Task: inverse folding
């Protein structure tokens, strides 16, 4: 996937969506597949009618949304490898009900790419160009859908903002690698349990860090916590031995995140903080800073988790069960 190919793909997508018949938009997937569509959902909710956009895990979509997924629905299915059984089942189920299905994947030729009405291809999590990463692709997908359904065109503005990601990500990753990389490894390489906290869009990163990276890829017990929910249970686990990663963003949820950090700094010995205020975001349109900063944070987390995996001699590709057994 190249920048030129992404631009061409966006043009084709805008023209392919049967906008006149679409009344509802659903996003679905499993694990990282749906988590990386959170920015897409956020942007869609900002620009489409209230209640027009919703998300659900694949199995839940087929159980809970039966009456609403029909010929008037647009369903976005996320599956990085394009073969996830639950995602493929949800895609086929939605198509059988008449929905227009967009499949988001980075592997051409897979069921998600070949059977969806429109295969929306992106690059991998390690993409050299962050504007082509799954999270970025979700943002572009959202603005393409908005253009098709409403006629409001902010796609070029979003594209320009995402093109600034490469330099911002390089600066942020270098900063955290040089100043906090050793601390991250020392703090967590032997931790029995890690809590990750983020609010709003940043909860996506908290979820991916805890569920995908720490639990699935490092076999470390971890739990993601929405910042708005921290004081409704999780606060009681905070003591000098508890391990927390707290994320601070640019958006409207930052005050909630700051409240959590203030509490953790008081009652724990050293919460690891990733703060979007450390990023060089001056060139980014203020209206895009919240979304862009979470994509940068995802890159910072990816860099730190590579360091942790190297220190633990536990490659991120190691699995006990995934794709090894039938389940």
Result:
């Amino acid at each position: 996937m190249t920048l030129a190919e992404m631009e061409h793909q966006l043009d084709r997508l805008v023209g392919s969506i049967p906008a006149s018949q679409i009344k509802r938009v659903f996003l679905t997937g499993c694990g990282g597949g749906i988590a990386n569509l959170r920015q897409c959902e956020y942007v869609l909710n900002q620009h489409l009618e209230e209640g027009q956009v919703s998300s659900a895990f694949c199995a839940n979509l087929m159980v809970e949304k039966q009456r609403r997924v029909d010929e008037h629905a647009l369903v976005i299915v996320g599956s990085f490898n394009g073969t996830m059984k639950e995602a493929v089942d949800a895609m086929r189920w939605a198509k059988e009900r008449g929905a227009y299905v967009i499949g988001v994947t980075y592997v051409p030729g897979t069921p998600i790419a070949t059977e969806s009405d429109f295969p929306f291809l992106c690059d991998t999590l390690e993409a050299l160009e962050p504007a082509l990463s799954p999270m970025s692709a979700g943002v572009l997908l959202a603005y393409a859908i908005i253009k098709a359904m409403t006629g409001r065109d902010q796609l070029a503005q979003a594209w320009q903002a995402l093109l600034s990601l490469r330099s911002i990500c390089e600066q942020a990753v270098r900063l955290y690698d040089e100043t906090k990389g050793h601390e991250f490894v020392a703090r967590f390489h032997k931790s029995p349990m890690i809590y990750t906290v983020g609010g709003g869009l940043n909860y996506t990163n908290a979820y991916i860090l805890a569920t995908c990276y720490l639990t699935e890829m490092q076999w470390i017990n971890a739990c993601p916590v929405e910042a708005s929910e921290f004081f409704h249970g999780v606060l009681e686990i905070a003591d000098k031995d508890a391990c927390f990663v707290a994320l601070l963003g640019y958006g409207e949820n930052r005050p909630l995140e700051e409240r959590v950090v203030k509490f953790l700094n008081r009652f724990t010995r050293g919460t690891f903080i990733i703060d979007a205020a450390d990023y060089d975001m001056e060139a980014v349109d203020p209206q895009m800073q919240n979304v862009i900063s979470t994509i940068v944070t995802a890159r910072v987390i990816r860099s730190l988790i590579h360091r942790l995996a190297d220190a633990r001699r536990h490659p991120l590709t190691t699995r006990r069960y995934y794709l090894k057994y039938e389940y």
